[in-house]
Q: What sequence folds into this?
């Protein structure tokens, strides 16, 4: 699979919920590219995450939480409740300037009855805004306000976003500013945040939004998708405040030291958010989900130096290190400090939240509600996961684990099967063990089910008319044409 930088939507977004008596506030916090071993509660000896660890001690630790191996598919599933393969987004990430998004007809994916008087996110925007009037932007798809960037990678301080060097040369494109505030029908680029670290100012905005609801009977939905700890632009991919970098003199490799500092800064800001929610009295009526969008990219994958130890694999792979992600769920109604090993998929959170606030779950959603299975002693709501089918190049075909162990001697891809109970680090491929024929047949049956059900992928080349030199060196919605390219 071609390694391409992940789409990032570093945003603060919220909606108002109103269903009779006040339902819980809902806060989703997404860390980008956070590694399994890059949190203290998983045993990291390098990275300091005291605030995330403290939050874990009062939350449900989801140690079998599965995401996709790349960000766009995971984020599409997170706020639609659909599998990426149901949206045609199972292939790769969405690049700047692509005419590509979650289809507009998916806006009904979590539509609720008007008689319930609920305003709830009808979709999550997973592509750059294609429509000048905001049809594909977050505020065009149901959010009341948006702050952050539309595109994928960006500089943490000057907030410019660039295509990778190969595409930049192809399109003769330069960097462009991609930092804005969308609210009240306006789509304003922000120049005054130059020099301010994105993790800090996204948290500032999140706190400001939540404080607007202090003492209010109106609940809120907030979606805070940090840029951190994804790499920035290729010219300077790992960026963190110098004071944070200096806290890790014990890490010899400068790249890993910067990665640790980025994680530490993310942890500080997450702590600020939780402290503010607590001080404002929101925590006693708020459901909070903290998660990563995919496994950490290791050893310079996407210019990052995450660690998924002891899990095998990295972002872009179907090993546990690529698809088993850090996740915590907090709700005052559940016993604090528990560990839940039930299988959970990122698509499950829309139906889970809908059930939590007393709204009927639409039948067409792929995700299943985990609301009851989060309780101690409850049974798992899932027995299978849909990570079996991805799109490679322009053809729909099976994906192996993308590792030497899963290639046959004639360089053809070979299926992998692991017993994660006995072999959690996936050392031994048991696909050819005769005694496991029934299990192998069952897994291939499920694979074929998802394979033939998958919606064909769209993944066009970027549109040349979207490039920043044509728009005063900024990234903006560039066309009134709502047609997505194949």
A:
């Amino acid at each position: 699979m071609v390694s391409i930088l992940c789409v990032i939507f570093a945003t603060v977004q919220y909606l108002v919920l109103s269903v009779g008596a006040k339902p819980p506030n809902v806060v989703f916090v997404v860390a980008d590219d956070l590694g399994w071993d890059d949190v203290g509660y998983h045993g990291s000896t390098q990275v300091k995450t005291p605030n995330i660890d403290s939050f874990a001690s009062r939350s449900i630790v989801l140690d079998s939480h599965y995401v996709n191996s790349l960000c766009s598919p995971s984020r599409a599933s997170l706020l639609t409740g659909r599998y990426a393969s149901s949206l045609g987004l199972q292939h790769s990430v969405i690049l700047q300037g692509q005419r590509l998004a979650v289809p507009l007809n998916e806006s009904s994916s979590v539509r609720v009855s008007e008689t319930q008087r609920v305003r709830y996110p009808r979709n999550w925007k997973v592509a750059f805004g294609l429509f000048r009037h905001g049809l594909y932007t977050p505020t065009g798809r149901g959010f009341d306000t948006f702050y952050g960037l539309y595109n994928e990678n960006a500089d943490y301080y000057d907030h410019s976003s660039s295509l990778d060097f190969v595409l930049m040369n192809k399109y003769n494109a330069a960097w462009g500013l991609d930092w804005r505030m969308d609210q009240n029908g306006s789509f304003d680029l922000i120049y005054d945040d130059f020099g301010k670290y994105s993790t800090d100012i996204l948290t500032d905005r999140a706190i400001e939004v939540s404080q607007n609801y202090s003492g209010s009977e109106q609940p809120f939905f907030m979606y805070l998708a940090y840029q951190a700890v994804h790499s920035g632009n290729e010219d300077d991919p790992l960026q963190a405040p110098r004071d944070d970098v200096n806290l890790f003199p014990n890490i010899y490799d400068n790249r890993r030291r910067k990665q640790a500092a980025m994680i530490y800064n993310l942890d500080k800001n997450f702590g600020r958010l939780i402290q503010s929610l607590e001080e404002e009295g929101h925590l006693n009526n708020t459901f909070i989900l903290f998660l990563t969008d995919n496994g950490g990219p290791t050893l310079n994958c996407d210019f990052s130096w995450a660690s998924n130890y002891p899990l095998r694999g990295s972002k872009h792979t179907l090993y546990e290190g690529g698809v088993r992600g850090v996740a915590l769920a907090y709700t005052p109604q559940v016993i604090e400090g528990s560990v839940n090993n039930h299988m959970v998929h990122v698509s499950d959170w829309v139906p889970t939240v809908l059930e939590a606030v007393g709204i009927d779950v639409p039948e067409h959603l792929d995700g299943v509600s985990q609301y009851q299975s989060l309780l101690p002693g409850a049974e798992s709501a899932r027995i299978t996961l849909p990570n079996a089918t991805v799109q490679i190049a322009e053809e729909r075909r099976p994906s192996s684990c993308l590792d030497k162990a899963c290639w046959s001697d004639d360089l053809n891809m070979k299926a992998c099967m692991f017993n994660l109970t006995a072999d959690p680090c996936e050392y031994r491929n048991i696909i050819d063990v005769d005694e496991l024929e029934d299990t192998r047949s069952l897994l291939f049956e499920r694979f074929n089910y998802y394979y033939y059900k998958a919606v064909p992928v769209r993944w066009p080349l970027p549109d040349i008319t979207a490039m920043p030199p044509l728009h005063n060196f900024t990234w903006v919605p560039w066309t009134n044409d709502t047609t997505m390219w194949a």
Residues 91 and 392 are 6 Å apart (CA to CA). The radius of gyration is 21 Å. DSSP finds ten helices and 16 strands in the chain.
